[in-house]
Amino acid sequence: MKTIKTLSTLLFTALLMLSCNQKSNKIIAQKDYNKYLEIKDNKSRDFAQGEINFWQKKYDKAPNQTSYLSLIASNYSKLFENTGNIKYLYKVEELLLQVNKEYHYQGVGSIRSLGRNYISQHRFKEALVLANKALAIGEGMKETQKLLFDVNMELGNYTDAEKNLKYLNDSRDFDYLIRVSKWNDHLGDLKTAISLMEKARDIAEINDNNSLKIWTYSNLGDLNGHAGNIQTSYDYYLKTLAVEPNNSYALKGIAWIAFSHEKDTKEANRIIDNISKRHHTPDFYLLKAQIAEYENDFLSKKTNLNDYFTMLNTINYGAMYNKYNTLIYADDKNTASKALEIAKIEIDHRPTPDSYDLLAWSYYNLGDSKKALAIEEEYVVGKSFEPKLNYHLATIYKANNLNEKVTPIKKELLKSTFELGPNLEKKIINL
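== Cell surface protein ==
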């Protein structure tokens, strides 16, 4: 009897400890963010629309005042950020083309603005042409170097990007800090990337600049998530929402924590469904498809992917979703050849390690593991520290019987399961 009682006590204690650990492991709480899901108004959107109406009336009365068009364009950019509606991004382009035409492409500010618009559209080579045009004019060189850094990073011109960064070198400058943070993230040094973003955050807070606070808080949410600091990531997303209650990016970050960290698919879907009512973009269907796959609900996964492609076919997003399309098509043997076609287009648009990885992954899924390996070794190995790319690399190594190279990558990937998500976590364990 004593033995049975002792075993019962031990079992109860173990279950209690397990229960406590599970509770302590939970991070998100509805009471923290429900108020942001239930917001009916959108002050940032309404303010931007009010500014557009104000400056449009002034321009209508004085159509020779080209500077008014730039102000209208700036507020359409804010509408795009706030709603995700691509028509606003195209409206910005239309206005900036008019501005630059009237300035005979001699105003560096409007040239750079159009360049940034092209970056948002994933028209990186055109953005680089504009950045170099601004550089040749020679005014506002630091601002042009910032644009050049951003474009060169997108194009994989890392040597040039590093030169742009050295030109900017000023540890007291917010724009320099966020870029050198991005550079260190690219190098795989997350600790330094976070530290530099925290310095940028301090500048934003000292100056009480809300737009810069939103930028740093949301980026610190991302960076800390990648580093496995999930609680800190969550706290920064909440700080973002405290400044901008309609920030869909932060809410999406919380939805990812609900899904990837807590495996609470119901809550993740609830958050996504609420965000997409006011910020409707195709990527929400992809997240819901991932969640459905985790639940083994393949009918729901198919429905969400169909809705995703329907939206892309209905609305012109240009090359903005090429990466996602390649990965979706590559994972199905029946559409892997289509993935290969898009991957080649992506390499033409932006010859980065990421784009070459898409090409290698497409060849792997078409059954050509040798060609996939050759591409990875020439264009990806040692050039990127992205976990998704490393998962592809490990899979391709395994297909080529290079198991000794798989083991160290697998070890690192197991540290990145939050970033990669539950579906890939299962696949990593089986590597």
